[in-house]
Amino acid sequence: MSVRADRAAPLLSSTQVDTVAIDALRSFLSQGSGDIRIYTANKLRRLYRSAEWRGQLGQLDSSMLSTLISIFGSLCIGTRETCAYDSPLLSRVQGEVDVGRRSYSSFVLNAASLKMQLGMVLTDSDRFWLMRVALAGAEALISRSFDKASQKQLAVLINRARNHYCAIRSHSFHPGVHVPYLQALLNTDDLRYVEILAKDMSYVFRTHRYCHPETLQVFYQLILKHGTTLSRRSREAIVSSIWIRLQEAHRENLQSESSGATPGIDTYHPDHHPVDVSWVARYVSALLFQLLDCRSQHRHRSWFMEELFAVLSPSQELSQRWMAMTLVALFQSCSSVAITGSALLDDGPLEQLRSPAAACWQVIFGLATVEKLLKASALSRPFPERDGIRDILRALYGKWLQVVNALTVPRDIACAVMASFFKIASIVHDSSLVEGCLALCDLGMLWGPASFNGVANHNVHSNTFMSAQYVAALLRLHGSNTDMVLRTIDAISTDVQWQCGVLSTVVRELALTELELAMAVLDIAKKAGMAIDPGSFDALAVSFTRGGTLEQALRLLKDWKSQLSQESRDVLVGVVAVRIRDAKQDRSFSKILALLVDAIAGLYDFQSPPTHLRKRLEGLLLICCQHGHASQAVNVVCDITRNTPKYFLPTFFRGLCSTLLRHRQFKSAVKVLAVVKSLYPTIARQLLHVVANTATRAGATRVAEGFHGQLNRSTSLYLRYRAHFRLPSERRIPRNLLSLKLSSFLCNLSHKDPTFDYLFGELLKSGRVGAAKRIFARVAPVASPSRRTDLGNLLLHGVSTQPTPRNRRRLRKLLSLIEDLTGQCGFQPDRVTVNIIIKAMISWRTMFDNVRLRSLFNHLIRGGYPPGDYSSQTLPFESPSAGRPLVMEKIGLSSHVDFERHVRPLYRMFVKAFYVRGDVEAARRVAEILSVEEGRYKCVNAKEREHDLGAS
């Protein structure tokens, strides 16, 4: 059954709860009983209480009670996250529970106590939820200051949780079982419970083949927060358990190799990822806590295991082994330069031991921790902790000298360590340390032409990474210098392919923090004719989402367009679209715009951008059209629509045509019309008339002449009129001068022509009221009464919208014109005429305030306009009668009232007028009347349609 059907199932009434509580509980708790009803948490609570009061809980079996404990435990914790011992029936309990308002811990304890009284055995699920309930109570006590009584209560809860945890920890390895208990002990900050935590953590390390990351995070916090205060016994227990774990992993690998298993495959691919100290630290940490398959080995795994055995062997001092664990914890959760520096520089007994293995461990994890700290804090810029980082680095360099003298480190690892020294020393601007590392590399024969003789490809790659870090260090210290970079890589090797790999790695490394230097390296490679790895461009494109300038992003997109992948292009286009709006006020915007046009030209010739980039790309194209680059933008639109026809929506084409016409880009608009015609024919017909009218008004008659055969008769006649008299652009001469020949044209045009009304309105908009009156007087005798009324209303509307005269003189002139038209031309006013006059009255704000407007609206209701829920006897407003308005004396209101043409425009006009005058109450009342009449109008139309369908 669907979830919707489950939710729609009825809930139990209170009467059913009181009578058949135990039956309802049994039905709900029985798996596969067919009961699909949904229960709220409170309803389930009432069912349980009702059955308990009647002594009926004994009828529940062990599985039912366990299900109840699981559900109440989940409600007590207040979470529905997936857990190891969740009940499937929890999905049939509605709503969330406010833990602070109502606790369900008593139900969990009561159900567990009942189960034990009935002689049933507590399952692992029962103990888990009992442990979680105890931990929830303990965390509530830990979060606030407590007295001795609270401390005793906390001890009781911790002991209770520990008893249940110890009973199930050997059966379950899910992190949801171990992490809440271990984290609660850590949060107490009490040395007694921290000692218990260390003991339980050592048990986890001994019994779990795989340690979950959440469990390891608790372990790292334990070391960093309480590592110095833990007793020797606890520290010994932890490192011993890790030693046992390491031995078991080594024994399993030996057994798999001796049994003739498939040889281990080297999963390290030098062409994709170089060996750096961070990777080495992660791999060694994984060897400690994650049992790697024999098929997931590294060629230096034997050296890693030897290093682990040398550092963590029980024959070593406890201080050395504990320091090794502290370094691992620092690397996994580094926090600040001060904390990291104090832990790395405080050697303690290690200073006397002088063990090469311990020193190598300290150097690798120390450098990895500092690199992680630099990456997280973005410390490539000037920072206050530079001196602290420099001290740490020099101390680690001194220890590294001990390791180099012992000659125990593989070449790959040595190159990775030296690369890290180059990187960090250049970031903190320690040029003397960079020179010292350079001399050490020369002494160790880690590079140079001789170092490539007889070495494997992976060593060449490690040498490439170290050389790239050295070149990046020179760039950080001395700035961009083409001769310096090329001379440096030529001194190391003259292999062109190797040099390309070095520069690609430099770009990839600098892209993370120094985009300007990375772009400089690209220019150097371009001058030298070297090819850059495509992966470096991808890293650069992603880096521009976090920083860099707009000009740099455009330059990358323009100069390296062919080398960029499609994903990188899309990323850069999105970055440019977001940032270009803020660059409009910059002085260099014209230069940026030129770069943008060159960058997007031909960008999507063969492949369209993804749909999630559509809005940003549309914005970029409109900006190009607004600033004189319409042809290039339209070419991009054509390229994209050729690959994906329906990529752009009709709204974009409307906005694009409007922008092109506004900036007089008529040829580009015609090109867009051809595209729209093939995609959206309806939209194309609408845009066709807009482009033709706008082009003709602007004087672009040659552009408009190509549309004559495609336009309707009205627009075609208007364009023919303009072309016949060779009228110039409307931008060059005023509109009133442009219409000088329009009156003579209208005298020769029939009033029945579809374009007559449009041209008559153009004459009025130009201020030629006298000419319009003469044309109306000429047309009135031969026109029908309805046509005469329409043209008269058009004339009255044109007079009422003239800028002068205003207020009293406008209204007087309008009423006088109505008298002349009525008496001399046979004009018959209608409701449209009333609306025109009322609009003129409303615009006279000093005379018609809100009180007079209310009175005027009442008179309109008396004159036959629809009143909504009011009537001519019960008027909408209580206002003093001021006599019959002038408009009622001049015009009779006996004509038909049409809702669409007469009522809706008039009432909306009143709503706006009341709002403008601050009379919100009157505006809302008129709006309510309009809403009622709209409902009635729709109802009448629906009935008429039903009647027409029935008649047919």
Helix content: 55-70%
Distance between the termini: 45 Å
Mean pLDDT: 79
What structural category do the secondary elements indicate?
Answer: mainly alpha
Q: How would you sum up this structure, described in words?
A:
It contains 47 helices and 2 strands. The protein is flat. It has 952 residues and is mainly α. It has a two-stranded parallel ribbon. The model is unreliable at 1-18, 261-272, 347-353, 448-460 and 724-733 (pLDDT under 50).
Offer a concise description of the structure.
With 952 residues, this protein is mainly α.
Write the topology of this structure.
Elements: H1 3-8, H2 14-19, H3 21-29, E1 39-40, H4 41-53, H5 62-77, E2 93-94, H6 105-117, H7 124-142, H8 148-168, H9 175-187, H10 191-207, H11 213-226, H12 232-258, H13 277-289, H14 301-312, H15 318-332, H16 337-345, H17 350-353, H18 356-377, H19 386-406, H20 411-427, H21 431-443, H22 457-478, H23 482-492, H24 496-510, H25 515-528, H26 534-543, H27 550-559, H28 566-579, H29 589-600, H30 614-626, H31 630-643, H32 650-662, H33 666-679, H34 681-697, H35 701-705, H36 713-725, H37 735-738, H38 742-747, H39 756-765, H40 769-779, H41 785-800, H42 807-825, H43 831-842, H44 850-862, H45 886-890, H46 899-916, H47 920-951
Parallel strand pairs: 1-2
Helix pairs in contact: 3-4, 5-6, 5-7, 6-7, 7-8, 7-9, 8-9, 9-11, 10-12, 11-15, 12-14, 12-15, 13-18, 15-18, 16-19, 18-19, 18-20, 19-20, 20-21, 20-22, 22-23, 22-24, 24-25, 24-26, 26-28, 27-28, 27-29, 28-30, 30-31, 30-32, 31-33, 32-33, 32-34, 33-34, 34-36, 39-41, 40-41, 41-42, 41-43, 43-46, ...
